[in-house]
Amino acid sequence: MTVETGAPRQERDLRESHARGWRGVGWGFVAKLLMMALVNALGLSIIFAALNVEAWGILVASTALLIAADVIYFMRRTLPLKYIFPGLVFLLVFQVFVLGYTGYVAFTNYGTGHAGSMQQAVDAALIQDEQRVEDSPTYPLAVVDNGDEIGFAINADGEVSVGTETQPLEPVGGAVVDDAGTPVEVEGWEIVPRSALFTDQDLQNQVVALRVPVSDDAESGSIRTRDGSSGAIYNSTLEWDPDARTLTDTETGTVYEATDTGNFVAADGSSLPAGWVVTVGFDNFVDAVTDTALSGPLLKVTLWTFAFAILTVLTSFGLGLLFAIIYNDPRIRARRSLRTLFILPYAFPAFMSALLWRGMFNREFGIINDWFFFGADINWLGDPLLAKVVILWVNLWLSYPYWFLVCTGALQALPSETMEAARIDGAGRWRQFRSITLPLLMVSTAPLAIASFAFNFNNFTIIYMLTEGGPPFPGTSGLGSSDILISAIYSISGVDGGVANYGLASALSIVVFIVVGIISAIAFRQTRKLEEIQ
Amino acid sequence: MRKQIAWGAAFAATAALVAGCSSGDPEPAETSAAPETSESEAPAIDGTGAELVIWTDAEREEALATAAEQFEADTGATVTLVQKNFEDLRNDFIAQVPTGEGPDITVGAHDWLGALVTAGVVDTVDIGDKAADFQQVALDAMTYDGQLYGLPYSTEAIALIQNADLVGDTAPTTWDEMIEMSNEAGFEDRPFILFTNGTAGDGYSAYPLQTSFGSPVFVQDEAGSYTTEVGMGGEAGEAFAQFLYDNGSAGTGVFSDTIDYDTSNQLFASGESPFILQGPWMPFFDEGDMNLVVSPMVSAGGETAAPFVGVQGFYLSAQSENALLANEFLTNYMATEDAQRTLYEADPRLPALSALAEEVSADPITAGFVESAAAGVPMPSIPEMGNVWELWNAAEIQIITGADPVSTWNDMVAELEASIG
Questions:
Q1: What sections of the protein cross the membrane (chain A) (predicted)?
Q2: What is the spatial distance between Cα A28 and Cα A31, in angstroms, rounded to a whole number?
């Protein structure tokens, strides 16, 4: 941009973006206005949706982001932020939020038996406790309204009775019923049409929650309806006391108290099935180390994870480099076609390859045993050590083409004068490789090696597709000897159908995140030293 | 109601902004179009504006769509079907119902029930007199602690499938008889295929053999409900473990750890073995070109070989905002024979309605599966079952591959009891 000294202020205004103001046809401004309208529409819909489900965190965050967007794009002084803001929003929503939420879950007991709020656990306990009285007939029923409260009118063998929550059922005279027996006219009450029940959600919830006592004696049960047109007598023995936070079984006198761990527990140690989510502090992290059923297998899994990631990078890098050097030699014919062939495993979807290899390593039907071991009975996938060998082998097969590709590129980029100088100085092949080629190669490939380590540290696909973590450790952990941390977390989280413990799984994934982060940081710091070579 | 206002407002704001000068009313016009029908036509209800959200998997979506269309036509309510992977339904339901994002109704398997109850996300269902129309095993499976939590629609169980071209169409009655039939027909190497899920082990498939030794996973009380008492210990369990060992790699070699799903299909379909213990989901039933006989599993230990019966049905969310409408849909539409027949035609699983089960038993293969299911027991739906699988599968496969049967089995039982606490 050229700036003329002493240029009048007007001209600077003219150079301003078309989106700033309305000049001429004003298409720029209109386009910006439309874009912002879209952004605002999206933001508002998120805000209303958050309001709807009472998700206050999301409400506050989305409101703040929306206001920030409007301020930034309509203010003159915030020019640089216009370019940064979209990226920042994506970072916040997709990275910071996810990480923060995982962190939050790590400090809770979220999992099987602890899924919702305490109120929802109470609702569930009351639902689970309320039983239909045995042999209670189904009565035709209508919902009635007298302006103050709603009640039920039921038809018990031709006799219509009406009652409300506070007023037990009492027969009323002169009621009219239709062919199906449903009361259609009751003196002093207005029949609520069923259609109204389905469309008015507040009313619907009131009707679902309404219990009309059959008589003054509470033990004889009360009428409830599930569809608004029929009722039956139900009995409930649990009573919720919100102040004392207790559920009392009126029949046995057992009192279930709310505990800090998110369960209703009675004095005798028995508890109600549904619990709720509470924060448990560092318990999950502590459990991972101290719970003997878990800590032993987890330690083995951790060691194997490191071994797996390190060995995979070393073997595939080594093989890739070896082939790259060989096929970089000008004496080899048809180098280009051969190189293309080397890329094939890389081009094949990893999970497909893993499944194919799994079939080939099958002890009885796999071609590996048949072709290469003369039909020997080698239990590749069922033996703890061999399963690890198989995983390393398949991952080598999958990832050496990548290193072949990278190293070929790096080799061709090496400065030929340096090599020539070395040759003139009388350096042998090995010496050339060790003192010049490899260090120069490491400058460009070391960061990729670290990235590859981090990727393989969390390489879920190959483990899951090849061995599913098996063969299992003896014991209750549910983990297996070829599990790496990420597949162990998957099985602990219970996503595959077992007992779920999202809290523990989140805690472990935070640990994995920290480990990968630290290793990457240290390693990148080390690679800076390599750059000094140049 | 507030929900609708908020959504309406958000929708109106979005629509107005997107469409610019659009002056159209975002609310559907039908709201005012339908005049009040007279009260005397009681059964026809008007649910215009109400919306039911139902989660389903792909296989049942079509069948549900037919029933939903009927429901929409009758009531004016909207039924929204959300298709998910069957495996995801359980966890998503548990995760999303507490946040208010869950559906009103979901398709599900009965053995999720323990997890759903402990998560507090599922409501009870009352089908009243209609209960008599359903098979008892289906109702039992959907019952937890004396309460019915779902509307069952299908049952399934594994059965002995026999290739009649290889060994004739007479079904064997005992294990020894079956092995002898196989051997005589020249299948000494592989007289019978037991699915073990490769090296992972599969207690589910071996369960009929286990029960024939009188060794249930959990002890059932008099009412048929499962207790948390592990029933696999003792002599019966040890006898079964010995049986696995004797027929494993250290013995006759009938069982191996190499049979995964595709292998078992392939072996049986290509006639490598005349007998397989599998379910109606095997692909060779769709082809119809194999000459098959299906019968209840033979007994190896003397007692009835009872397979696990899996039941599928519909669960109602505990947090449904449309509980009345959802109940109306479940008990007055989905519980009818027509709706259940539609489901059967779209996704042929053994119907849970007795009359329908009898009707489809005209087909001898289906009849075989129905007979097998009738001899079965519901798969335990108590949450403790979640602790069982991994230990159980692992112990069985270890014994099959030659571990000491009695000690491996007893260790497994002891660990299981410890983990249940």
A1: 25-49, 55-75, 87-107, 303-326, 338-357, 390-414, 435-455, 502-524
A2: 5
* Cα A302 from Cα B188, distance rounded (Å): 45
Average pLDDT over all residues of chain B:
84
Distance between CA atoms of residues B229 and B248, nearest Å: 28
* Residue B375 DSSP symbol: T
**Cβ of residue B327 closer than 8 Å to a chain A Cβ:** yes
Pairing of strands B377-378, B308-317: parallel
User: In degrees rounded to 5, what are phi and psi of residue B185?
Assistant: -80, 0
Structural tokens at position A323? 């082939």
Task: Give one DSSP letter per residue of B325-360, joined into a string.
Answer: HHHHHIIIIITSHHHHHHHHHHS--EESBHHHHHHH
As a whole number of angstroms, the longest Cα–Cα distance in chain B is: 84
Q: Is A494 in contact with B324 (Cβ distance < 8 A)?
A: no
pLDDT band at A253 (very low <50, low <70, confident <90, very high): confident
ipTM: 0.74
- Strands (E) across B4-149 are located at 51-56, 78-83, 105-109, 122-123, 143-144, 147-148
Q: Three-state SS across A24-47?
A: CCCHHHHHHHHHHHHHHHHHHHHH
Please tell me the predicted confidence (pLDDT) of residue B268: 92
A88: left (phi over 0), alpha (psi -120 to 50) or beta: alpha
Q: Are strands B308-317 and B150-156 parallel, antiparallel or unpaired?
A: antiparallel
Could you report the per-residue pLDDT of A31-70, keeping only the tens digit for each? Answer: 888 999 999 999 999 999 888 877 788 889 889 999 998 8
* Contact criterion met (CB < 8 Å) for A494 and B91: yes
- Tell me which of B390, B391, B398, B408 to substitute to probe the interface with A (most A C-beta atoms closer than 10 Å): B390
The pLDDT of residue B152: 92
User: Closest chain A residue to B2 measured between Cα atoms?
Assistant: A52
pLDDT of residue B311: 92
Strand partners, A233: A223
Q: Are B47 and A196 in contact (CB under 8 A)?
A: no
pLDDT in tens, B175-228: 999 999 999 999 988 999 999 988 888 999 999 999 999 999 999 887 777 888
Q: Is pLDDT above 60 for A534?
A: no
| 3-state SS, residue B56 | strand
pLDDT, tens digit, for every residue of B7-37?
444 444 444 444 443 333 333 333 333 333 3
B35 inside 8 A of chain A by CB: no
- CB atoms B120 and A232 under 8 Å: no
Retrieve residue B354's tokens.
Answer: 């007795």
B19 burial class (0-12, 13-18, 19+ CB within 10 angstroms)?
A: exposed
Residue B161 DSSP SS3? strand
- A381 pLDDT higher than 80: yes
Full strand arrangement of the beta sheet holding B159-163: B275-278, B159-163, B292-295
Interface test with B, best of A38, A46, A52 (most B CBs within 10 A): A52
Inter-chain residue contact A131 with B146, CB threshold 8 Å: yes
Contact B305, B377 (CB under 8 A): no
A54 CB neighbours in chain B (<8 A) are 100
B352 close to B136: Cβ distance less than 8 angstroms: no
CB atoms within 10 A of CB B418: 12
- Under a CB-based contact definition with an 8 Å cutoff, are residues B44 and B16 in contact? no
Within 8 A of B13 by CB-CB distance, chain A residues are 41, 44-45, 48
pLDDT reading at A211 higher than 50? yes
The CA distance from A243 to A233, in Å, is 29
| Spatial distance between the Cα atoms of B221 and B298, rounded to a whole number of angstroms | 26
Q: Percentage of residues in chain A with pLDDT exceeding 70?
A: 93
